[in-house]
Structure formats: C-alpha cells, structure tokens
C-alpha cells in the first residue's frame, strides 16, 4: 500500500469529521424509536448511559493507538494481544462485520428518510433496499476519488449535520417548553412491560451503536498527521460532540411524541417528531439532514472500514479478490454492505451489529488487561469497568432478543460460528503453506 505524504494526511479536524461522520448517522436517525420500544420515556437516559459505557471503552483503543498507530487499528491491537491466530482473526472479523452492518444501516436509513420526504414511508420495502444500494454505491465512488475528497466532504457535511441537528433539537426543546428538560429527570414511564426492567439495559445496547463509530478513528493511524497525539484527541472530541447532540435531540423527540408514536415511527422517529412542532418544513429539514448524515456517514465509514480490511488481508486473515486490484478492500466492503442492506431490515441489522461489536469490545479490553497493559501503560481498572459495563448491557439485550426475536440470536450465533471456523481453516492453511510468514510471528509485547 502507498503511504500518503504528510501533506496528504488527515488533519485533526478531518479525523474528527470522519469520526462524527460515522457516528452521526443511522444510530441517531433510525434507533431512537427502537430504543424507546425498550426503555419507554427513559430514552435520553439510555443515550447518556451509553455515552458513559463508550467513554470507558474508548480508553483501551486510545492507549493502544497512541502507542502503535496504524491503518489496521483494531486488527493490530487484537493481533498484539492474542497473536496472529484464530482468536485475533475472529474478533477482528467481528468488528469488520459490525462496521459493514453499520454501513447497511446507514443505507437503509437513507432510503427510509428519503421516502418519508414524499410521504411514501409505508411504500414497498423494495424501494428502501433500492435506495440503500444507491447510497452505498455513491459512497464507494467518492472513496475511489481519494483521501482529500473524503476529508473535504466529511468536514463540510459534519458541519451541516452538527448545526442542523443542534438547531432542530434546541428549537424542539424551546417549542415544547422549558418543562421538557425537567421531564427528562422526572420521567415515570420506564421500560415497557414486554421487556420489563431488562428493557433499559437492552435499550442502552442499541444506543451504543450511535457512538461506536469512534472505533473507526483507530484505523486512521497510517493516514493521520501526528497520530500518537491526535487519535486520542479525535476520539474524545467526537464522543463529546455526539453526546451533547444526542441528549438534545432525544429530549426534543420525547417532548414531541408519545412512546407509542415513537415506536410506530421507529425507523424515522426524528422526522415524525418534527411534524407536530414545525409542520412540513420541519419534516423536510429533518429529512435533508438525515440524507446528508447518512451519505456522509457512508463515505467516512467506507474509508475507515476499507483500511481495516486492508490490514486483515495483509495479515492473511481475510480473503481478497483475484488479481491485484488497488481498491479491492473498498469493493469487498461496499459489496457486503449492499447485500446486507438489500436483505435485512433496520431492526435485524442493528441487533446483529450490537452483539458482534460488544463481543469484540470485551475481547479488546481482556487483551489489554492480560497481555498489553505494560506495553501501552494502561491503568487496568478502566478496562475492567468497561468489561463489566459491556456485560451488564449485552446480557439483558440477549435475553430480550431471545424472547422477542429468537431468529436474531440464531443468525448471530451462526455467523459467529462461521467466522471462527473459517479463521481456523485459514490459520491452518496459512501455517501449512507459509510456515515462516510474518503474519504468524507474534508482535512484540504480545504476552506470548
């Protein structure tokens, strides 16, 4: 791979824009209604707690990336912690697939909101799939143009998204009255009866998806100026910006819609919330922001996730295409996202992505604690807290999904098993044909 010159590398502003570009997308536009279905009117609290969980989780990524910045980010962390075997390869692919699922979520959110602009939100599902495919393909084309176009588009659209969402949120709170702020802290209609008290931690699991895009920043190490300093700063800034925006927008939505209304419009809750407050122009503005957010999120995500797949291919943990196509990681990533967007709905995509992401996240923290704590100079109680918080929200989510949508658990388990088996076969084949391959040489300080 060609190493970009410092002049062509991402700035801190560009890095934050890419990170927020991935984060401010489907997570907030498509998940508010799904979170409400589990948490009742405690939706804002779910996003606040999710930010706390993600804040603790970010520590492990920041410590490793500050020590070993690379375009492989998470894949390199797992390889350093567990060696270049089945465990590192499997959890790296868990992360990769969860990111691709996030891209398909962005694509379907784009289609859902665009149809809402024309009053066609109840149109045949095929149209959501068609628009999702078109959005993902557009994001891939922009990435083919090059890094500078990606950064410029991300920086420009990030400003539009942040400003647009902030205006909608603040205007919504003002329109609903100052009492709407107090209602967040005095809400009485908690988790719904179907999910019981497990609904709140389960809802937090989905809310985490609105923040997990911060992990793509760790894949920018080879493309970012002064990465040892800027990766950590970029992650913290991106999480902070999103936390404030999500809190404001969820307060505005809960002030505008009842819980049943949010659930009925769960795939386009923000647009529905704008209607009673601002009328048709508010819906149009919300749709416009959603379209910009999802398209820019796709551009940023395809850039970062392709970098991760590049690293997985170089480590022989993932297959490539025949020949030596310079953009094959981008083609593979976009192709998988298109397939997922075409055949899964928003709820299935969100659930699959959440489970795979949190499983990988726990493996990251365990690797830091047991193998890399001295190498990255980590304070181990922080990743321990991150593990406890991950388990505390993932466990209830699995129970709730097993009761309400058992097929989601079955599909996730089958996909995880397929990845592990494929990695076992790949590692055996690699060691048989390339016994001295650098991919099989444990990295320094890996604890082996």
How would you characterize this protein structure?
The chain starts with 11 loop residues before the first helix and ends in a 15-residue tail after the last helix. Helix 4 runs antiparallel to helix 5. The chain is built from 17 helices and no strands. The C terminus is likely disordered. The chain has a single domain, classed as Amino acid/polyamine transporter I (Up-down Bundle), CATH 1.20.1740.10. With 448 residues, it is mainly α.
SSE inventory with pairings:
Layout: H1 12-23, H2 26-39, H3 43-67, H4 74-82, H5 86-117, H6 125-145, H7 147-176, H8 179-185, H9 199-208, H10 227-256, H11 259-264, H12 269-278, H13 280-314, H14 328-343, H15 346-372, H16 381-404, H17 406-433
CATH superfamily: Amino acid/polyamine transporter I
What's the helix count? Answer: 17
For the sheet with most strands, the description reads: none
Mean pLDDT rating: 81
> Which architecture per CATH?
Up-down Bundle
Tell me the series of helices and strands, N- to C-terminal. Answer: HHHHHHHHHHHHHHHHH
Distance between the termini: 29 Å
Q: What gyration radius follows from the Cα positions, in whole Å? A: 21 Å
Low-confidence region ranges: 444-448
Shape verdict: globular
Let me know the number of strands.
Answer: 0
Multimeric organization: single chain
The percent range for helix content is: over 70%
Strand content: under 5%
Structural class category: mainly alpha
Could you name the CATH topology?
Amino acid/polyamine transporter I
Q: Please write the CATH class name.
A: Mainly Alpha
The number of domains: 1
């Amino acid at each position: 791979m060609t190493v970009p010159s410092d002049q062509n590398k991402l700035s801190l502003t560009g890095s934050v824009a890419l990170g927020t570009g991935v984060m401010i997308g489907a997570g907030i536009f498509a998940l508010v209604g799904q979170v409400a279905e589990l948490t009742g009117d405690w939706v804002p609290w779910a996003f606040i707690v999710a930010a706390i969980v993600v804040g603790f989780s970010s520590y492990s990524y920041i410590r490793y990336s500050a020590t070993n910045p690379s375009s492989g980010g998470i894949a390199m962390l797992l390889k350093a912690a567990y060696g270049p075997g089945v465990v590192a390869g499997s959890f790296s692919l868990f992360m990769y697939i969860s990111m691709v699922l996030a891209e398909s979520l962005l694509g379907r959110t784009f289609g859902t909101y665009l149809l809402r602009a024309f009053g066609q939100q109840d149109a045949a599902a095929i149209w959501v799939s068609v628009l999702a495919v078109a959005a993902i393909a557009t994001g891939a084309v922009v990435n083919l143009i090059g890094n500078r176009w990606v950064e410029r588009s991300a920086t420009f659209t990030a400003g539009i998204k942040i400003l647009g969402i902030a205006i909608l949120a603040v205007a919504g709170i003002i329109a609903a009255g100052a009492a709407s702020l107090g209602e967040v802290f005095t809400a009485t209609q908690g988790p719904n009866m179907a999910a019981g008290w497990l609904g709140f931690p389960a809802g937090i699991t989905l809310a985490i998806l609105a923040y997990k895009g911060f992990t793509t920043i760790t894949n920018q190490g080879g493309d970012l100026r002064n990465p040892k300093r800027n990766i950590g700063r970029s992650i913290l800034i991106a999480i902070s910006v999103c936390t404030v925006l999500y809190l404001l927008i969820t307060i505005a939505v809960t002030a505008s819609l009842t819980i049943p209304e949010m659930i009925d419009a769960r795939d386009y809750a923000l647009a529905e919330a704008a209607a009673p407050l601002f009328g048709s122009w508010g819906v149009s503005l919300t749709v416009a922001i959603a379209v910009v957010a999802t398209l820019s999120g796709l551009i940023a995500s395809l850039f970062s996730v392709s970098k991760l797949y590049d690293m997985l291919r170089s480590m022989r943990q993932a297959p490539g295409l025949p020949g030596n196509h310079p953009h094959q990681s981008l083609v593979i990533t976009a192709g998988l996202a298109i397939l997922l967007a075409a055949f899964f709905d928003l709820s299935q995509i969100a659930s699959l992505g959440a489970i795979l992401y949190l499983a990988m996240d726990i493996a990251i923290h365990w690797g830091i604690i047991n193998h890399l704590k001295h190498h990255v100079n980590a304070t181990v109680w922080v990743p321990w807290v991150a593990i406890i918080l991950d388990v505390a929200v993932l466990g209830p989510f699995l129970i709730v999904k097993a009761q309400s949508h058992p097929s989601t658990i079955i599909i996730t388990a089958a996909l995880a098993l397929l990845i592990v088996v494929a990695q076992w076969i790949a590692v055996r084949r690699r060691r048989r044909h390339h016994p001295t391959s650098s991919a099989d040489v444990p990295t320094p300080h890996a604890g082996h």
